Amino acid sequence: DPDAVLARQAARESAARTYARTFRIVPVHARGMTVTGADGRRYLDCLSGAGTLALGHNHPVVVEAVQRVIERGAPWHALDIATPEKDEFTDALFAALPPGLARRARVHFCGPAGTDAVEAALKLTRTATGRTGVAAFTGAYHGMTAGALAASGGVGVKEPMTGVAAEATRLPYPYAYRCPFGLGDSSGEVSARYVERLLDDPNGGVVPPAAMILEAVQGEGGVVPAPLPWLREMRRITAERGIPLVLDEVQTGVGRTGTMWAIEAAGVEPDVMVLSKAIGGSLPLAVVVYADHLDTWAPGAHTGTFRGTTLAMAAGAATLRYVQSERLAERAEALGRRLRADLTALAGAHPSIGEVRGRGLLNGIELVEPDAVPDRVGARPAAPGLAVAVRAECLRRGLIVELGGRHDSVVRLIPPLVMTDEEAGQVLDRLDAALTAAER
Ligand code: PMP
């Protein structure tokens, strides 16, 4: 009885549980993009385990990879000891890395969450540079541990943690729709000049940081793709000042944004990449990859028990190889382009759609107050209440979507990269109907 399960868990679990409140379903089966609840209802999954399911649920190549490990009787857990599965995963990872980084890369296996790999990147760059600070961006999301939280923007959950999280210098991310300078499309250029000035101003309050950390497309921040010239500017600015550039590709990696790694679209390479989510083929795995000149840690500098999960390495290797062999990044690029065009067309009938944006199959729809007067760059006030209603109406129609953004008013679409054209059509139809119902 799904209602009994939901009630029992509500009584026993932490008050901080989140998704369980929003999605009152008890999933018992999942395949591809379809999740089936205990009550037999089917849902199209545009959340994909918060972006972990690049190949969707129970993809045969991932299932087989896991089954092979089990059949061989391989150790499921091996700390950070070398295993054939780790060897294969590292092979697949290095084959997929940006070529310049691959030639001189080192990988460190972290605790199994993205936030631990962020922590590792921040600690490593501290050790390597002898500096302490971190330059991070408005709207960023890097995780929940103290260091990662420090680098995250002003997400609501951070407020009660003031004093726990370390300090980071907050720099303006180029979010054109709600540009902090009110400059719309030139937000990238203005941000780059501001960042450069601040780093060079002896009285700017910015001690030379150990690292600059950023997402090439902010996910939790409301699906905000950085302009490619801005990414190139951040590369130039950090390179000229000897600041390691850390790319958080936890959500954007493994083909999600139309290239294997989101930064590749800009034609530049980072010094450090933080990877998790899809990298483990939906099983828990996180790594930090960095250029070998940063390899300054002594043994034991960043340990953790769960750094040798054989099943995750097998699933991750299978996923990486499949994304490459089936050219799923290109597919994400083409399908995403069409999806955004269709969503933009939908905006004609739905005045609550303020902006449609994204890259590849990481897309967002910013919902706004339809009747409000736009500001001088054309943005209207965010509509978080409407967004909550749209999410509920979507679920009612068999579509799982999550919200994000500065005002929790962005509907995020993170379907598996293997979504079919037909499924994409169904997503649009259900979203259209949900918007109509919520706008009433
Ligand atoms: N970085 C980014 C860009 C993320 O999107 C997330 C998770 N949403 C994290 C880090 C943290 O990963 P985890 O939840 O696995 O700790």
From TrEMBL:
<keyword id="KW-0663">Pyridoxal phosphate</keyword>
<protein>
    <recommendedName>
        <fullName>Diaminobutyrate--2-oxoglutarate transaminase</fullName>
        <ecNumber>2.6.1.76</ecNumber>
    </recommendedName>
</protein>
<dbReference type="InterPro" id="IPR015421">
    <property type="entry name" value="PyrdxlP-dep_Trfase_major"/>
</dbReference>
<dbReference type="InterPro" id="IPR015424">
    <property type="entry name" value="PyrdxlP-dep_Trfase"/>
</dbReference>
<keyword id="KW-0808">Transferase</keyword>
<dbReference type="InterPro" id="IPR049704">
    <property type="entry name" value="Aminotrans_3_PPA_site"/>
</dbReference>
<dbReference type="InterPro" id="IPR005814">
    <property type="entry name" value="Aminotrans_3"/>
</dbReference>
<dbReference type="InterPro" id="IPR015422">
    <property type="entry name" value="PyrdxlP-dep_Trfase_small"/>
</dbReference>
<comment type="similarity">
    <text>Belongs to the class-III pyridoxal-phosphate-dependent aminotransferase family.</text>
</comment>
<dbReference type="GO" id="GO:0045303">
    <property type="term" value="F:diaminobutyrate-2-oxoglutarate transaminase activity"/>
</dbReference>
<dbReference type="InterPro" id="IPR004637">
    <property type="entry name" value="Dat"/>
</dbReference>
<dbReference type="GO" id="GO:0030170">
    <property type="term" value="F:pyridoxal phosphate binding"/>
</dbReference>
<comment type="pathway">
    <text>Amine and polyamine biosynthesis; ectoine biosynthesis; L-ectoine from L-aspartate 4-semialdehyde: step 1/3.</text>
</comment>
<dbReference type="Pfam" id="PF00202">
    <property type="entry name" value="Aminotran_3"/>
</dbReference>
<keyword id="KW-0032">Aminotransferase</keyword>
